[in-house]
Design brief:
The chain contains 14 helices and eleven strands. The protein is of the alpha/beta class and 373 residues long. It folds into two domains: 115 residues, Arc Repressor Mutant, subunit A (Orthogonal Bundle), CATH 1.10.10; 203 residues, Rossmann fold, CATH 3.40.50.
């Protein structure tokens, strides 16, 4: 007898056999796997609905107005009532919304609001689903890459990857970068407050660069990235902010670059680079004596068995579809992957000429390293 979420599927009392080999199947283990798969299917399809809810302001309307039925939500947002009725039901079934059967209304709990509705929340997670949208769009090309062994560069991915990456990492950077991570480094916070020259390598849409430039007006910042459209996006973002102490460049981090920097940062990107040791060598030459390199990487333990958990599942998945292909598209590719772990990152950084390397801080999703020559 198989059961998923309380539903049973009778097998007529017969022993279960694998259809591909002469093996008796453990019914309890099969039941657990089926339950997991049903949950994963629901999560996968609801991911698209999360994007819709975020784009149309559905979560924000529910958060602002309290319990609502589909018609009230339609009146508030201008969306179709019939579509909203199904969307609300799906999200409630997935556990993303609360359903109140007596009034036939839906709402967000305070916890759900932090994850889906509050753009200032440190744990808002909607951005991750935009990046997942890119993963599904790019699947045919990655399937071919599996067969050929070739890479797929960052810039060749579906555009929703870039906005998704920005939306996913912004909350963590906003709530930790200048409050916790930089102060955890030896003397850097004080140096930036006085005035220093800073390079943000692999800045992408430059969330990190702009946050630092806002927090440290006496310092000068330059955001550097190989992806020209991301640099253009960063420049437009700064046009709105009007920060005078920040500029942007399109450049390859593994190639020679002008130096004179007191502080260099790399956020969630070193593992994506083809030859991290070569990048480390260039960073070392770019730094002034006594300068510091802050490397932010996805949280990972050194052993695979210690990463077999939900965070590891997410990061290994993104790594398979994005990080490893990106590295393999570059010369001398080492393809570290997003779960490289501290020991491997340390090895690459020291191979580039750094003698000092330590873990300065961490969150459930990131490890923050300090490197000095």
């Amino acid at each position: 007898m198989l059961s998923v979420e309380g539903r049973s599927f009778s097998e007529g009392g017969k022993s279960l056999k694998s259809t591909t080999m002469e093996t008796t199947v453990n019914e309890d283990k099969l039941n657990q796997l089926l339950g997991k798969m049903v949950g994963d299917l629901g999560a996968a399809v609801n991911g698209a609905l999360v994007i819709i809810g975020d784009k149309l302001g559905l979560y924000r309307a529910l958060h602002k107005n309290g319990p609502m039925n589909s018609q009230a939500l339609a009146d508030e947002t201008g969306a179709s009532e019939r579509y909203l009725r199904e969307w609300l039901s799906a999200q409630a079934a997935q556990g993303y919304l609360q359903y109140h059967p007596e009034e036939e209304t839906f709402s967000l709990s305070p916890e759900q609001a932090m994850v889906f509705a509050d753009s200032e929340s440190p744990v808002i997670m909607t951005g991750g689903f935009y990046a997942i949208s890119s993963v599904y769009n790019d699947e045919p090309r990655i399937t071919k890459a599996f067969q050929s062994g070739e890479g797929l560069s960052w810039g060749d991915h579906c555009n929703c990857l870039f906005c998704g990456t920005e939306k996913f990492f912004r909350p963590s950077y906003k709530h930790h970068l200048t409050q916790d991570w930089i102060p955890s480094l030896d003397g850097v916070d004080e140096k930036l407050k006085r005035g220093a020259k800073v390079a943000d390598i692999g800045c992408g849409h430059a969330v990190s660069t702009l946050l630092m430039a806002q927090a440290y007006p006496n310092s000068e910042f330059v955001g550097i990235d190989l992806h020209a459209p991301s640099i253009e996006h960063a420049r437009k973002a700064n046009e709105k902010l009007g920060l005078p102490n920040v500029s942007f460049e399109v450049a390859d981090a593994s190639q020679p670059h002008k130096g004179g920097f007191d502080f260099i940062t790399s956020f969630d990107c070193l593992h994506d680079m083809g030859d991290p040791a070569a990048v480390a060598g260039q960073v070392k030459h770019m730094l002034n004596p006594g300068g510091t390199w802050m490397i932010v990487e996805p949280f990972a333990n050194d052993k695979l068995e210690d990463n077999l958990n939900p965070v590891g599942s997410t990061y290994y998945g993104f790594s398979t579809m994005i990080c490893v292909p990106s590295s393999l598209s570059q010369p001398n590719a080492k393809a570290l992957g997003a779960q490289a772990g501290e020991a491997r990152i340390r090895s690459e950084v020291k191979a580039g000429g750094f003698s000092h390397f330590r873990r300065a801080a961490e969150t459930p999703f990131n490890l923050i390293y300090e490197a000095k020559a």
